[in-house]
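Hey team,

Filing this mostly as a record. A colleague (T.K.) asked me to run one chain through the structure pipeline before their review meeting, and I want the input and output archived in the tracker in case anyone asks later how it was produced. No errors, nothing strange. Just documentation.

Input sequence:
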Amino acid sequence: MPNTINSMIRWWAQEKPELPCIKQGADQVSYADFNAWVGRVAARFTDAGVGAGDRVCIHGINCIEWCVAAIATLRCGGVFAGLSNKMVMAEVTYLLGDYSPIILVSDDEAQAKLTDMGPLVDRHGHPVRAPLRISFSQIAALRNVEGEGEARDVQQEVDPDALAYIVTTSGSTARPKGVMFSNHSLIDHVSAFRFEDPVSDLDPKMYIVAPFNTTAGGMQMLHSLIQGGTAYIDDKFDAAEVLEAIVRDRISIFCAAPIFLQRIADLPEFADADVSCIQVSFTGGAAVAPKLLRAWADKGVRVRQMYGQSEMGGWGTVTPPRLALDHPDKCGFGGPLRDIGIIDEEGNFLGPNQMGQIVMRGPGSMLGYWNDPEATAKTMVGGWIRTGDLGVIDESGLLRFVDRLKDIIISGGLNISAAEIERVLMEYPGIEEAAVIAAPDEKFGETPFAIVHGKVEISVTALVEHCNANLSSYKVPRYVAVHAEPLQRLATGKISKPVLRQQYAGTEALPPRVR
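Output structure:
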């Protein structure tokens, strides 16, 4: 159907049949073969009952089969949602209950982890039917035309404005939120990117290391497929391997968190590496050191600061190349198809150099939050996305990000909700107060630091074990401080995190690492 991701895939399969669509290591699949493979998997999904609006959850590391399962779901008229392979059982079962998928596609590791999965319930406690489990190996078995699914495909009438994709984000609440997109909004998002930041290469090559279950990884994968490029994918980040791939394969689009760009720049071989093939490079999610931008600029690559969030498809505004070095702390003007603004607490728009909440609107905005109309109404107001972040727009129109109102910790490019960790901490016997703030980390940039108080003696070792059982590893605090006295609070009754941040400012003020 027109104006869908599958109409784009079919078009590129016709126009660029032999062009590699996705490459992972030595393995690659052309657009023609990818399109046919998607058709066979979509037929399998349809046989299993997937139709318009039905969810398919994909749980596992980045791989070609992950991409096939996602696009096959869309071809059925269904909705795909990625689950992090770092999630523990409690997190996975909550989301499976909330999304209520017809099918759960997963790799062998995830299949083994979910062997003892108990009954599923939705967020209201109502029973949910367990999904049919399909492994990546079963998806791989349908790659060739031999055997089951030969020459099969699905010609499902798909509404381009209907829900198609859910990104699970930490958000600022104690439970993950599902950010919803349609085929139409996803294509609009990519179209805006092409207008605002055109790539001269007719067959762009995008290197993707971010997990597909995140906005960064999932959106980059869809960007590449929609615009008919080649996605070079990996299931982990290794600085030396990424640099080698950039040089060898002449990658033209490479976007990554500042800490990953720094690791590449720190390699001895970076000095002699020819990375001038990179035409587009964004970074964001953490402060960017001017020294890092200069290191890449000296190699012919203008790395630019961007600002966005999942609700805007992950990318909202980026500094133009001509201003990247002179304004390393700025995030651009928005664009011809995107507006940015700053509002006060009453929702009034503020003038230049006045600090307030960043708001954005334009192509690729979310449809809303899954099963959460109240949160949707608070975030989407008058056509604008209220980001919950503080910023300033200067007299020239450039945006500067100031701070995160939503209290998100960004560790290795991954968003971690402090409230989610606090919820788990408060479930531990004896804890009466808990606050989580960001602590500096040489490897990941930031890492969770938990400050707790209770009237009884608290075992830090047992508390960390409790967190390990209920949180993904990267969310488990690496620092824990136990306060004998209650934590200081603001006039509103909330724990004063500014006081805690000041108290533990600097690495010398931190307690010993617990993991």
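Quick notes for T.K.: The two ends are 51 Å apart (CA to CA). The chain is about 30% helix and 25% strand.
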